[in-house]
């Protein structure tokens, strides 16, 4: 009887192990990204250059379109790791979650949106936005909070000095801007460049250049997953670091050639221009360590927007052990 129980336990353990691995023997990791953007170039490089595979990982990427959906996917075990704005981890923590998300590897260190105007404005100043019809991003999301912070720094109250619309879903914002009577919008690349190329808009400013160092998009996982899969988290972080270094040392054109399969509707020249914009403003983090300065800037931006639910200490939601290990070794 004891032998039978032992064999059953062993069979269950073997099944669990095999379920986490694919036919190649690599460990499978499900990764949810908040949107598809050139802003996440190092992530696509890690996949396409085989850096994950070299670590014995097979990363299955899904795009979950929006911070709320992405965090829900992570918390419900629809993904092992999420690439999403670090503000979402604060929202979850403030809800007294028993198994909250931990930020362990930073991918981008500035805002990734650009201010796009419907009409050409060669002499643009931020004062041009006053009394304009502005299509904003989701309330409580990083694009909107950073956008509001930048506008306030230029003396513009986004809720008093603009006709601000925030009722459009994240994925539908580009289409709404193109077809509506909005004068300004925040867009990520390559969408901003596509609009410019098609004559549907003109890039007039960068929110990334205006907002400074902030952990805009970060890889995070539930605490329970990290406790049970610390080796996989370490391997994942090492692959990301290798991709970040490759992106730092490579030209925009070389990067564009690698990530082109993820942007079938964008030609190579447009991708190159988009990547060059991000590289020129140091948007791509060169290592995965999320520092205290960035975390405090994030909380200040959230607080300024009236969206900080709790003053969460850096050490509570940020784990730099894996990042520091791979960088130092």
Automatic annotation (TrEMBL):
Major site of localization recorded for this protein: periplasm
Signal peptide annotation: 1-22
Localisation per UniProt entry: Periplasm
Superkingdom of the organism of origin: Bacteria
Keywords: Signal
Pfam families for this protein: NMT1_2
Record's keyword annotation contains Transferase: no
Annotated family: Belongs to the bacterial solute-binding protein SsuA/TauA family.
Protein name: NitT/TauT family transport system substrate-binding protein
């Amino acid at each position: 009887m004891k032998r039978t129980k032992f064999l059953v336990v062993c069979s269950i353990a073997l099944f669990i192990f095999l379920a986490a691995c694919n036919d190649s023997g690599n460990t499978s990791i499900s990764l949810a990204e908040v949107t598809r953007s050139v802003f996440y170039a190092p992530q696509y490089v890690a996949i396409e250059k085989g850096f994950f595979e070299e670590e014995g990982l097979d990363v299955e990427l899904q795009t979950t379109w929006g911070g709320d959906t992405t965090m829900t996917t992570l918390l419900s075990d629809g993904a092992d790791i999420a690439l999403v704005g670090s503000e979402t981890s604060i929202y979850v923590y403030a809800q007294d979650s028993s198994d909250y998300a931990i930020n362990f590897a930073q991918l981008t260190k500035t805002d990734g949106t650009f201010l796009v105007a419907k009409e050409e404005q060669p002499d643009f100043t931020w004062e041009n936005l006053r009394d304009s019809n502005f299509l904003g991003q989701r309330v409580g999301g990083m694009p909107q909070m950073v956008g509001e912070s930048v506008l306030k720094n230029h003396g513009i109250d986004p809720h008093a000095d603009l006709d601000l619309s925030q009722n459009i879903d994240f994925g539908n914002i580009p289409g709404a801007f193109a077809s509506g009577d909005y004068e300004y919008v925040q867009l990520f690349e390559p969408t901003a460049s596509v609009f410019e190329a098609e004559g549907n808009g003109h890039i007039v400013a960068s929110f990334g250049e205006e907002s400074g160092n902030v952990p805009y998009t970060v890889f995070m996982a539930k605490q329970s997953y990290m406790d049970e899969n610390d080796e996989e988290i370490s391997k994942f972080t090492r692959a990301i670091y290798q991709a970040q270094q490759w992106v730092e040392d490579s030209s925009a054109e070389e990067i564009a050639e690698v990530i082109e399969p993820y942007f079938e509707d964008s030609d190579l020249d447009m991708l190159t221009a988009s990547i060059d914009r991000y590289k020129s403003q140091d948007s791509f983090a060169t290592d995965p360590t999320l520092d205290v300065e960035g975390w405090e800037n994030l909380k200040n931006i959230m607080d300024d927007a009236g969206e900080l639910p709790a003053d969460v200490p850096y050490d509570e939601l940020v784990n730099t052990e894996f990042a520091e290990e791979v960088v130092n070794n």
